């Protein structure tokens, strides 16, 4: 092996370690047969997972996260798709400006968005709640869902919709019978991407919730009373959920590419 | 003559300050196979799109079957379209693609499927109904697009360069089939292409377009052999264009002075007019002038290329002003490069075009 190759391989290993070591440590010590998630590793145990599933607060928060993530992602996907469809098909005057306005929140930090929503909700009398968190997650995920849907509404897709109208379909029939079924994998992918972002989003969820909280907020609360392998187990579950969703998204988008 | 099925009345299309179509009047008879032919940017696709209802004319009216459809949305016009990229529905079976238009017309499922299968048989895809679009080749998709468009029995079928993506052999075959299907159904076809050979082989009538205007219009043989304008003469295949001036004229003939001598041509001309003479390469005759032909002088063959059905030769004429002629000769009687040959032409084959 040439020295150049050795350097490259060493570099790749170093980068991989840098990226994956923290996650590997988190997962590994969730199986710790001991009271603290720090080296040395004392043996393999599932008791912390059992503890997670006995922890009512964690389970409740997990349920809240699923509800907030599911609903906010569905709303963001539907609104994002409709905005993209309207913009791509009716080409209104000032369409570009609307597009930039829709995409703008992506450049704003979650802290600013959270603060802004907190002030706004105060002003209109909406209390801090899961509803408020859900609205916050729609705000951060809408630009993404819009962009994903918009990218799929190009000239070929427009032609297929024209073909439907050419054969007598109304605008609504073309939308329901052709556009939505053709974009289905894309829309589901957008939904899951939004869901993963909502699933482990902390700042907005922390600022806008009060009694009912989402999973990242509960984990943060528990962290304040010190490290425990139980938290590792909860974190691993959060991480595993995200990984599964990302794989689902990849498969859906690959399917979309193959068929498109 | 009965009222034309499709009528364009003073149709104009502008995009901002660019004029895509310049005030066009066009009548298309029922049962006619019309080809809109022109280079890209000639406005032919825009004209098709205005008949289809996907582009709104800036001025003028569009009538189909005597009814003014200018304001009518595409879905309600009695026509269908075969799109350039086929625009099939990838999430539906072949049968459901073909039956889509019938479903929109609320035809019951059983009747719709039967009709779809009949249409598939007509386009040579019997038994393909259950397949997915992704299992089909390009040529098969083309046929499905055609079957889908004719399934609803439109008064007019619009075809937007439907054969562009097919290889040459398949394109020839589809051209023949299009003509057969059109004659069998009796439907009016309006077909857009930039391929003049395709236009000539399928059209009842060719409409030649250039820069948003209709340059010429007529049956293929007339368009090719007696083009009305210089553009048509050069666009409809290779032609020799000789600039000249009318030096004498009588009621039935004109004398045109060119670099290759003065030619006497039948037809009307004004003395002093600048004209162009168009001579197709296959109409040049090898040999000196004989009974009924006119001499074009002697030229040296500078290059030849074998084209299968004929040999194409380039000749430098002995006129001293670099006049070149293209000659198309049968492979068996082809001149060799470097040889000198005399050329002549029948005056009736020469087309006189106003410059």
Name the descriptors.
heterodimer, A: 260 residues, mainly alpha, MetI-like fold, 11 helices, 0% strand, globular, B: 355 residues, alpha+beta, Rossmann fold, OB fold (Dihydrolipoamide Acetyltransferase, E2P), 2 domains, six-stranded mixed sheet, 8 helices, 24% helix
What this model shows, in words?
The complex is a heterodimer of chains A (260) and B (355). Chain A is mostly helical and 260 residues long. Chain A has one domain (56-259): MetI-like fold (Orthogonal Bundle), CATH 1.10.3720.10. Chain A has helices at residues 3-30, 47-54, 56-90, 95-103, 110-124, 130-151, 155-166, 171-199, 203-208, 215-223, 229-259. Chain A starts with a helix and ends with a helix. Chain B has 355 residues and is α+β, with helices and mostly antiparallel strands. Chain B has 2 domains: 6-234, P-loop containing nucleotide triphosphate hydrolases (Rossmann fold); 240-354, OB fold (Dihydrolipoamide Acetyltransferase, E2P) (Beta Barrel), CATH 2.40.50.140. Chain B has 8 helices and 20 strands. Chain B has a 6-stranded mixed β-sheet, sandwiched between helices. In chain B, α2 (94-104) packs parallel to α4. The longest helix of chain B has 18 residues, at 168-185. The radius of gyration of chain B is 24 Å and the shape is elongated. Chain B starts with 5 loop residues before the first strand and ends with a strand. The relative contact order of chain B is 0.11. The model of chain B has no long low-confidence stretch (mean pLDDT 90). The A-B interface holds A 156, 159-160, 162-170, 173, 178, 181-182, 184, 259-260 and B 52, 54, 73-76, 79-81, 83, 85, 87-91, 100-101, 104-105, 134, 148-149, 152.
